Amino acid sequence: MKKLLLLSAVGFFAVLNSCQKDSQVSDDELVQQIASASDKTVVATASLPATTATYIDENYFESYVEEAYLVTDKGYELVMGDANRIYCDPRGRILRPNRRRAADDGPCGRGEAVRPAQLPAAITNYVAENYPGAVIQRAKQLTSGTYFIKINDPGYILIFNENGRFIEATVLFYQCRPLGTPIDVATLPETITTYIADNFAGAEIKVAFQKNNGMIVVGIFTPEGRKILGFDADGNFLFVRP
Prior knowledge:
With 242 residues, the chain is of the alpha+beta class. The protein has helices at residues 2-23, 27-36, 50-59, 121-130, 190-199; strands at residues 41-42, 65-71, 75-80, 85-88, 111-113, 136-142, 147-151, 156-160, 166-171, 180-183, 204-211, 216-222, 225-231, 237-241.
């Protein structure tokens, strides 16, 4: 009897283990399932899992979530302002396809977070000399070798080449040139400046960019912090992002 029970238990766990293996899906497969799904639902960025929001804050501080979609029981697809796409499972775990360069990488390239203490001395020295008292809050390096550095002076994003040579500075967000053209904030359409004045009291317009699809993206400082606003080519409001 004991032998029979033992064999039954072994058989049960063997079947259970087999089912678990069959149900396992690789990150590559899950990303493909999410990307090709026909039943994507638009979701508010505020509803994204906390782990995903933290990942974006650390790895995409120079960008913003332009669109967010949910595929039920599979996960999320996030379209970033730099045209990169991020995928995560329903719990917010970032999916990492096993390939050197994903086909969904944007034209600006994909990067990984770097600890400030690991940055080249040329970068930290530049920050110390040109932004006295500033703190390096975030850092990342693109696959091209370019470094993006975020400092609290306030909200500047500094860009350096792979050798630590300074290239340029921007504020709030950065858009690489293939995506469109920077706009002088003084030339923004009145519909946009009026909307901002009416809806974001005390806001300061810091940077603007027009994407190749006509969308105008505007970065503002408000008493609550950074806001990224999207407008269509006619100046009609589309979205606001933190």
